[in-house]
Structure formats: structure tokens, C-alpha cells
Predict the structure.
Amino acid sequence: MEIHTVEKLQKQALKKSSADFTRLGFSLFFMIGVLTYSFLSNGGISNNMFLAVAALIGAYMAMNIGANDVANNVGPAVGSKALTLTTAIIIAAIFEAAGALIAGGEVVKTIKNGIIDISAFGGNSDPFIWAMMAALLAAALWLNFATMMKAPVSTTHSIVGAVMGAGIAAAGFSVVNWGTMAEIVASWVVSPLLGGIVAAAFLFAIKKSIVMKDDKVEAAKVYVPIFVALMSLAFITYIILKGVQQIWPKILGYLNMLPLVSLEITKSPKFSLAFTIAFIISIFVYFIVKKRVGANTTTLQNSRDSVNTLFTIPLIFAAALLSFAHGANDVANAIGPLAAIHDAIVNGGVSSSASIPLWVMGIGALGISLGLALYGPNLIKTVGTEITELDQIRAFSIAMAASVTVIFASQLGLPVSSTHIAIGGVFGVGFLREWMHVKDEKNHTIEEDINIIKDEQLNKEIYKTELKNLQDKIDKSQNDYIRIVELYKLIENEKKIIKSTKKSIKKAKKVQYVRRDAVKKILAAWLITVPAAAILAGVLFFTIKGIMI
């Protein structure tokens, strides 16, 4: 028996080891390919080897973004069984790459959100290049570590902290824009809080309007089209505002070719126009979904599981759209510093923005997709299954939170992180389930237990009074002594019943739908992301500087 167990463990270990080596092999092949291509295609540049190494690090960073950050987009859909892990990875990889290549932008500000003042470098490109390389490598290493620990962290915060740390090492503390850093610290609180509140609000609304109704099928016919239309309104607005900023002028140009259409050409979409377009499309979505749900009512059962199936297709669209928007926005975290290095090497100077060659954009797009495919499953499982149990309705609420919160926060000028919003949405859904468990599902049981305790305490007091009277009696009969013994037993029995009932109440109130250890681990990772990346970047800057001088 023990021999068979050892053999089984050996086979499992060899299988895992083989898979690890395969993933590592693909990763190294991609990074070496990037290094070789960059070196050969930039042969005319004097510092082309340094650029090739920077491209290698950019590829490494892109893969780590794919491994860690993309899980937030598809994790809830996988956890709810709306998508299989393989299908989710394929959809996310395609739409991440599409978002990066189509809408990632021809120009990306390399110094994210004004983290450091580039004038402090005095036009000296060498320290700037070393700082950007140190920042890129530090952020990538931190993301790699967080992924190994199964902690979803913000890639934006990682690169921001790394740029800050490298900037301080290169030019001192005065180089940092501390106002921007204060906003980032604020986002640690604002993002998960807003995400949790919005996700919980949508889940509560769906429960009250559909799940808790006696006739769930009829309620679904009325409200599911409304909720899906709201999702399309939120997501289309989100995609227009966050996913197509860089190609927006071209889109307006094409629209102006249509008869009776004359739109002002702007660099980025305005909220009013984005919302109007989304609203018109959502009306069509409403009638399409209403017709589809109506046609399926004969096959639907009057149960929560049956209603859940109506949210499967919307969740697939949500995962795809979130991945597209993420690819369009967060590709800059991988290639922004690389673009800065490329610009500084090619032009011999330091600028706040830089044109990005297609091959650099391709590194970001392919790297994110490859990192997701090779190393994404661990974080997808963490987000989808290891924080709280998800079904389609809960996952739908989280997806809604991801889009609605970003739109709401951007219009109010609040600093938010999409990663923190998504994870906050998972927390919000789980904690709402705990609250409703006590308040609704177990409330009647708790009330019954409380009434039992009151009755037993009253009986105990009656028995105690009778016992005292008998004990005070001077001339006791044999029956009195027998009754005294009975009363002691009855009082002791009442104590046991009261104690047991109190334990039952405590247990009912302590039901946990959110894993506390997962919450603590993720919150700790969030808090140390910026300082950890900053310290690591500072150390790497001095290391690179020491090698180069």
C-alpha cells in the first residue's frame, strides 16, 4: 500500500515538474526571441544591446501582467462556471492582445500620471535610462512574486512604485510628485470600497427582484432584460471612455462620413457622447434579451439555478470586454518604460512621451497573452474560487461593479485601481451573503432560539424559587427531599439547554462566506506593493549604475 502511494506521489511530482519546465521553456523562448529581434532590428543604434536587454525585461513584465492582472477580468466568470478555464484563457488572450494592438495607443506617457519630474534629470539620458530599466525590472519581479503567492495586485501600482523608487535613487526625493502618490494611497481605500458596495448593491437588487420571488421565471422575464441592458450601457460606456481613447479621432472621422452626421473631432471621447451611444445600443440589447428570455420560459424551472443560466452569455461578453479594455489601458505598464528607454536611446534625450514602434506594442500584446496562458490559471482560480463561492448572478454583479465603478470614479476624479475594484467586488458579494444569511435565511431560527432561551430561563427561575422555598421549610417530608433532588436536576438541565442554544445562535451568526485568510493576504499585498516595488527599483538602479560606470 505504501509503495503504491509513493509511486503515485512520484508520478504527480514528475507531471508537475514537466508542466513547470514546459511553461518556463515557452517563456524563455519568447524572451530570447524578443531579445534577438530587438538586437538585430536596431543594429544601426549605438546602444542597441542595452535596448535589446530593455526589450527583454519589457517582455518579462508583460508576461507578469498577463499572469497576475488579467485574472480579475475572467476569474469571476470561471468561478461561476459560466466559462471553463481553457475557454476563459483563450477569450482573454485574444481580447487582451486586440485591446493592446488596436487601442493601446500610438503615444503613451512613459512617466505614468506624473509620478516623477523628468526635468530633474537635466536632459542627461543615461541616469534616466537606468532608472526606467530598474523600474521595469522591479515591477516585473514584484508581480512575479505576487503571482507565486497567489495574491492579485495592481500592476499600475507596481510600476508606479517602481518608477518612484528608481526616480528617488537617481535624482533624490524632490523628483517625486507627492500629490500623485497621495492619490494612489487614497485609491487603496476608495477602489475596493466602491467596488464592494456596487457589487453588493447589484447582487441585492437581483436577489430582491428575481431570486426571492415566488414566481422566479416571471420575475426573470421582467428584470433580466433590464439588468443585461444596464450591463451593456455600463460596458459600452466603459469601453468608449477607457478602451478606444487613442483611436477616437479616427472613429469620429469615419462617423462623419455618414450622411447627416457632423461631430466635433476631439482627442478623447466625452462622457456625454459615450453615454448616449451606449444608451442607444442598450435599448436594442433590452429588446433582444427580452425576446430571448421570453422564448426560453418554457424550459426554465422555478429555481435559482435555472435563473442563473440566463446570466451566462452576458458574463462571457463581460469577460471579453473587460479584457479588451484592460489590454488597451494596462499595456502601457509593460511598454511605457520600454518606450521611454527606446526614445532616449534613439533620440539621445529625455521626453515625457514617446512614439511607440509597432514591434514594441507587439511585445506588450503578445507578452500579456502568453503570460495569461502559461501562468494565469493560479490567479484565476484564486479570484474565482478561493475568496468566496460564486455563481453567475454573483459574478455578473462583480462584472457590473468593475465597469460602473471605473466610470463613476473617473467622472468624479477619484483615483481607482481596476484590480482593487474587481477584488473589492468579490469581497462585497461574499460579505453581503454573510449578512443576508444571518438576516434572512437564518433569522427565523435565531428568533426561535432566543425565545427558547427566554422560556428556559423563566423555567429555571421558577424551579429555583420552588427549591428555595423547600430548602427553607423546617419540617420536610420524604416527598420534599425527592422534589429537591428533582429540582436540582431540572435546573441543571435548563442550564445545559440554554448553553446549547446560545452556542447554536453564535454558530449561526458566525457563518463565513469569505475566507478571512485570503482577505488578509490580499490586503497585505496591496499595502506593500508600492513600497516593495520602490525599494527593489532603488536597489536595482544602483546595481545597474554600478555595472555601467
About this structure: The two ends are 63 Å apart (CA to CA). The chain has a mean pLDDT of 81. The first helix runs from residue 2 to 41. The CA atoms of residues 25 and 176 lie 39 Å apart.
